[in-house]
Design goal:
290 residues, alpha+beta, Aminopeptidase, 2 domains, eight-stranded mixed beta sheet, four-stranded antiparallel beta sheet
Length: 290
């Protein structure tokens, strides 16, 4: 008999072990240590155990929904950090039971919106989420590039490129460079949650900030890269990418969840050697408690 309840009180090691088994055959191969799991899946995404769901066979955790909570524009938004079921327990209606229990929590806590991302090729998951009342609200592109495939065109040598830690970053100024809001895991709050993992690369001219990129120097992840609108097409982005390549010790650079509508950024990445790895949907369900 499967019991569904929150993950409050469940140890991080059990969460990690179950997550690893549940995602052992995932479309996008996932390999991570427990330390990275806790940092990337839990801390970075604002995981809340009492708002997260587990399916238990006796005392064994066999299914999970990890959720994070944030206030966004005055609304309480719950985000699905990860949903998975151990292979031997699939196709038994466990996902539906977990979502039904989750809806009870959402109503009890008066959560305004539930948000998640799903790989577009994962058709069973997309169908489940649509059946549960979620709608597609955004499409994301996920890119990667081997460093040796970086294509140079127009590096700007008249600007200064600096590598810094995040201690004195003016985050509000950086948001003015955006065309589209970043996804949950690439948001400013996510970056701040694990700020010691990132550096910022800034492009300056006459002490004015023209563009930037956040970079994880160990794994080559770029959660954000942006330029002032009037400074685009001048080789500044290429100069920032060159510094990214010099900074990271990883063989590959990755940038996931660029908005499909962001033609400027996506064409820039493809022009410089990035390849589309996979595509995702962002899906949302809004609630009203009037």
């Amino acid at each position: 008999m499967i019991e569904v309840k929150t993950l409050e009180g469940i140890s991080k090691s059990v969460l990690f072990q179950t997550f690893t088994r549940a995602f052992s055959d995932y479309i996008a191969k996932i390999q991570m240590s427990q330390e990275r799991f806790e940092r990337e899946l839990l801390i970075r995404r604002s995981f809340i155990s009492e708002l997260s769901i587990g399916a238990f066979d006796k005392q064994q955790l066999v299914g999970l929904i990890f959720n994070g909570l944030r206030q966004i524009n005055g609304k309480k938004v719950l985000y699905d950090c990860a949903t998975g079921i151990i292979p031997a327990y699939r196709k038994q209606g466990i996902s539906t039971k977990m979502f039904q229990y989750l809806e009870e929590i959402i109503n009890d806590k008066k959560i305004d919106s539930y948000l998640l991302e799903v790989i577009q090729k994962n058709e069973p998951a997309v169908a489940l989420y649509k059946k549960s009342g979620l709608d597609i609200c955004c499409e994301y592109m996920c890119y990667h590039m081997k460093k040796e495939n970086f294509k140079k065109f127009h590096k700007n040598d008249e600007i200064t490129i600096e590598l810094k830690n995040l201690n004195n970053v003016n985050f509000d100024l950086l948001t003015s460079f955006w065309d589209y809001q970043p996804s949950w895991q690439n948001s400013m709050e996510s970056i701040k949650n694990v700020h010691s993992q990132f550096n910022i690369i800034e492009a300056h001219q006459d002490s004015k900030l023209l563009g930037y990129a956040f970079i994880n120097p160990l794994n080559g992840e770029i959660p954000q890269i942006a330029l002032k609108k009037e400074e685009r097409g001048k080789g500044i982005g290429e100069s920032i990418l060159q510094k990214v390549i010099e900074t990271t010790t990883a063989d590959k650079i990755s940038i996931i969840n660029t908005d499909k509508r962001d033609h400027n950024l996506n064409s820039f990445l493809e022009k410089h050697g990035f390849e589309l790895n996979l595509s995702q949907y962002e899906m949302i369900k809004n609630y009203s408690f009037e």
